[in-house]
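worker-03 picked up job from queue 'complexes'. Input manifest follows; two sequence lines, order preserved.
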Amino acid sequence: MLLDATELDVRYGRNHAVKAVSVGLDQGEIVTVLGANGAGKSSLLKALLGTVRADGTVLFDGTDISGWSAPRRVRAGLVMVPEGRQIFVSLTVHENLLMGAWCRSDDPEPETEAIYERFPNLAERRHLPASVLSGGEQQMLAISRALLARPKLMMLDEPSLGLSPILVKQLFELIRDLNRDGLAIMLVEQNTRMALATAQRGYVLELGSVVLKGRASEISGDARLEDAYLGGNADRASPRSIPGKEIE
Amino acid sequence: MLLLQQLINGLMLGGLYVMVAVAFTLIIGMLNFLNFTIPALFMFAAMMMWATMTGNLPFGNDFLLSAFGEHHIWIAGVVVSIVSICIVSLIIERFTYRYMKAKYGDATEHALPLVSSLGFLIIFEHLVISQWGSDPLQIESPFGDATFTIGSLIFSIPQIISLALSLGIVFLLSHIIRRTKLGRALRSIAERPDTATLMGVDVLRIVPVVYVITGLLCAISGILFTINYTSIDAYIGDTVATVAIAGMVLGGLGNVWGAVVGGLFVGILEVFSIYIVGADFVKVPIWGLLLLILVLKPTGLFGHSAIGKGKF
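worker-03 finished. Artifact:
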């Protein structure tokens, strides 16, 4: 297993955000983590990356990285694309890419050229401040920036948030492309339908615990998935549905 | 001609304000707080310079005298001053930033570092007063009256070297911020420290570097001030830093070249004010101008409209 986290607990004061969650991911796999707002998805990612204090063990590529700082985990190949893109708008597009390569000592320029070939929109604006990019281009930049860290596992936190349906489709195509090139991906998403169509396996979180896990195809048909989004005890008569499902 | 001489004197004085103003602006641009330990660092550097040159170090300076000789004791002063400022800067970083950040997270923005830095300033001033008193202290300039004249204009050679050194250091700093890998990291931390961490940047290892850089700026400025003006006291940091703050605000918060222009400008303004209206009145034009700028153009001459982070 590339990533094997067991019994992770995250607490913010009295708020127990992640409760004994165990997740794993194989080499070359796409795994999705689903759940409603506040289910603990982002906290789980932060625990895996080491940006919040967490109890439990994280094995990455056969090494116990539980006590490691976030920068050390990034150097080991565990890289996150944060929610809301969070590109550096006071830096140029090119400088953003170079920031992705911060933890490397070799010259990242050849790889930036490959990125520019893949995304001509970024190439045109490489010397402009990243603030000129559209939302979709910013997401491309955020993913490209993460690629320059040479990840073994890329964790994406809500990458489709705020993108138009066409851009969401392109985004998931890109995720599949990257995976085909051998990159393992952990995908946290609100867009359940697209995520399950892309991932091989999935976990569903509710109130900080895993309530459902298994193959993506099994999860999409499971009633407990809908329960997780309705908050379990919610009024079943309310006409809410799973985000993303109503498009069908 | 007399006015031109005042202009030259003002530029020389302004060169010293420039480094202090840039020190303020660096911490504001990166960490978003007004660092009141900067006056303390300036004063402490000047004091260490004085104490080394006059044999007033607590442990004596006999071995420094024998190592450097009477004529080169000023070099020992520079070394002692810079080394002690680096150490003090790292201690200050622990207690104005790192400890607070670890304990209180984002609540440390603005208030906690500002108040703890003010505490450092007061403690430092009173430690110095208890050791050496609050009266003005003199050194003998190691360079005497080294001057040259063009027509009737007098140029002090140490002052010209100071101005060149000051501008050179700021130019180097600006180059580092704009063009190097460290500079990119500094700008990314200024804008989004949490995201910089996701890139693998160890923010807690970079921030002490910023403190040491600002400490060095204060130290060099304090040393040059001592050599050029030969008289200092325990409150010299307050005197110089308040003018430098005015210069920084004038140029625009968080803008390095703005601080350069602002620093030079307040230097010239101070000298002219003393010449025209006298020394007792000198703070009024400087702070009056500052208030006027804040009313007319609160971002300063070269500042961005964003008040907060990411302004390099």
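worker-03 released lock.
The longest helix of chain B spans residues 73-104.
The beta strands of chain B are 137-138, 147-150, 153-156, 231-232.
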